[in-house]
Automatic annotation (TrEMBL):
It comes from Cryptomonas curvata. This is Derlin. Keywords: Endoplasmic reticulum, Membrane, Transmembrane, Transmembrane helix. May be involved in the degradation of misfolded endoplasmic reticulum (ER) luminal proteins. Belongs to the derlin family. It is found in: Endoplasmic reticulum membrane.
Amino acid sequence: IIIMFLNFLNSFPPVTRGFLIMSISVNFLCFTNILKPMNIFLNYKLVIDFFNLWRLFSHIFFFGQIGVKSFFYIFFFIRYSKALENFSFQGRGEDYLYLLFTGNSIMLLLKLFVPSANFLGPGITFMIVYIWGKKNAQQLINLVDILHIKGSSLPFLLMISSHFMKQKNIKA
């Protein structure tokens, strides 16, 4: 099982793999109560007054309680992040990392206008899916052999389904 998991991780390009490892780790540690979400959420007062600089980036790795919605976000992130990094940023991992850094920086600024947004992992997912959709606007995507949509419609489908999806927690 460990070898299968390592092979799975090695199938991803480096930046996506690093993000996936951090996301799985943070979400698992929060699920097991080893790490409290309150210790990683984005709070400017704690960043400035207590120099909690990790809060400027740790919030993007948390997708909420382990459940359908968090798996949904992680799935979309790794699928379209892998595609972007392999094709649009092939051999330019540092440029892709810069894209993620820039996206996080913009979301940090937008957080000033939406103070209730403490975890921006879903925001990074929306950003990646949006960029992938723009770069692959005409590509047809097959959803469950029922629905075929163009790549340009994927971000809107993600937004709508995310809005209506209820969080179903997995019981430990």
